[in-house]
Specification:
mainly alpha, binds 4-fluoro-L-phenylalanine, Hydantoin permease, two-stranded antiparallel sheet, globular
Length: about 450
């Protein structure tokens, strides 16, 4: 089984594919609205702290489990821990990423719709028009559900081509394209009159907004954005080579991810402030506020506004696709190896299950009857995964790597058998993984459930 598993073909492929998983709607959609709601730069500082203290050590731990075992997440955890029960952490990850794929595809489907609508010039109108457009479209029973399923199918067809020819190739094409589009829009947005206020909002911290809730949100966002706790990094690391420097790769990927999130803020806030819109409108920011912002901000040159709008939604679609691919791969690898199925068949299991969830999530938007614990099914899935399942997965992984696994094995993987030149970081890493990560997450989960 080990030999016919795919592998990433190059170092660049490894970084781009894994960064492709990390960079997604979490950066371009979730990060800006969270920053807008939670005090701008103050939130970003807390977020950066979460990435450095918990994110990078957490990523390295998942990499260690996956690269050592070279198997799907469930088997990887069981092999690494030398105990079947630990395989459940892998299963939890597979479940988490499949739920995320279900609701994430719905938002990605909205991006597809907005890409088409902006190309056809259908997003022109005043505030009320754009608001109605979003409300009507997102609560329609058919179209958004169909587009969500279409997005999962597009993902499916990349996945069945395999690790190198599917995942790596698409990431190598889309990631640079995404970066170029982002830079063009950032430059256009920052050169608008009055853009300075948006830049200031993003860079000047308002610490009065900080609360325990903000810490919770920042942590959930860091995990979601780095694809941490879903076994996704573990699965991708199972395609890494023995020479991959795990710490260096985690650092590079976290840096790219953070940079793209901040650039997304620099793309949205200056344009919003230039037309007097406050960027605190929540999840609908990019679908309700932005179409109007682009129109007004570039009213002096409508053709530019038109092109920027298309580029923006294309960017979202690309970012979403490289992430949905990684979510899909986790389950596909599992079913291929555990049920001994052909990759194509295994992929269909996931495609069908996630499509069903996507349809229900889409139907729950704007309706009162598909609710779970007072939230729409869609919001519930987001809450459950980002604030409960991801932190739990990451906490268990750090307990496994920090306390339960063989110390020699962890050290060998971290240092590539003492050859990789990152030896001096090992004690810091071990300290974070043993104490900082589990204790922080535990406190946060206890806070979440009202224990403290
Ligand atoms: N990291 C992705 C984003 O920021 O959009 C979301 C994600 C991808 C979460 C893969 C989980 C996952 F397994």
């Amino acid at each position: 089984m080990k030999n016919d598993r795919g592998n990433f073909g190059s170092k660049l492929g490894i970084v781009l594919a894994t960064a492709g998983s990390a960079v997604g709607l979490g950066n371009v959609w979730r990060f800006p609205f969270m920053t807008g709601q939670n005090g701008g730069a103050a939130f970003i500082i807390v977020y950066l702290g979460c990435i450095l203290l918990l994110g990078i050590p957490g990523m390295v731990s998942e990499f260690i489990v996956g690269r050592h075992s070279q198997a799907n997440a469930a088997r990887a955890y069981a092999t690494f821990a030398r105990g079947k029960a630990w395989g459940l952490v892998g299963i939890l990850g597979i479940l988490t990423s499949s739920i995320i794929l279900g609701f994430y595809a719905v938002v990605a489907g909205w991006c597809l719709q907005y890409l088409g609508a902006s190309a056809m010039g259908r997003l022109k109108g005043d505030n009320t028009f754009v608001l109605n457009y979003f409300q009507q479209f997102s609560s329609d029973p058919v179209k958004p559900a169909v587009l969500g399923v279409v997005f999962i199918l597009i993902t499916h067809f990349v996945i069945v081509r395999g690790v190198k020819d599917g995942i790596e190739r698409v990431s190598k094409l889309l990631m640079p394209l995404l970066f170029i589009l982002l830079l063009i829009i950032v430059v256009a947005s920052c050169s608008l009159p009055g853009a300075g206020k948006g830049i200031e909002f993003l860079l000047r911290p308002d610490f009065s907004k900080l609360s325990s809730q903000v810490f919770l949100e920042a942590l959930g966002q860091a995990f979601f954005s780095l694809s941490l706790g879903t076994a996704c990094l573990c699965t991708y690391a199972s395609y890494f080579t023995r020479h991959t420097n795990l710490l260096q790769s985690a650092g590079q990927i976290a840096m790219v991810d953070f940079l793209i999130a901040v650039l997304s803020g620099l793309m949205i806030f200056p344009a919003a402030f230039s037309v007097g819109v406050l960027p605190d409108s929540g999840p609908s920011l990019i679908f309700i506020t932005l179409p109007n912002v682009f129109q007004q901000a570039f009213a002096f040159m409508p053709a530019l506004g038109y092109v920027i709008s298309i580029m923006f939604y294309a960017l979202l679609v690309f970012a979403a696709l490289t992430s949905t691919i990684s979510m899909h791969e986790i389950g596909t690898a599992f079913f291929t190896e555990e049920l001994k199925l052909k990759r194509n068949r295994a992929a269909w299991i996931l495609t069908i299950a996630c499509s069903v969830l996507a349809v229900f999530c889409s139907l729950s938007v704007g309706k009162a009857d598909l609710q779970v614990m007072g939230r729409s099914l869609m919001d519930f899935c987001d809450f459950l995964t980002a604030q409960v399942m991801l932190p739990t997965g990451a906490m268990l992984t750090s307990i496994l790597v920090g306390w339960c696994a063989s110390k020699q094995l962890v050290r060998d993987e971290f240092t590539n058998h003492e050859t990789s030149g990152v030896k001096s970081f090992y004690p810091y890493y071990l300290f974070c993984v043993r104490y900082v990560v589990p204790i922080f997450i535990l406190l946060i989960l206890m806070h979440q459930f009202g224990v403290i």
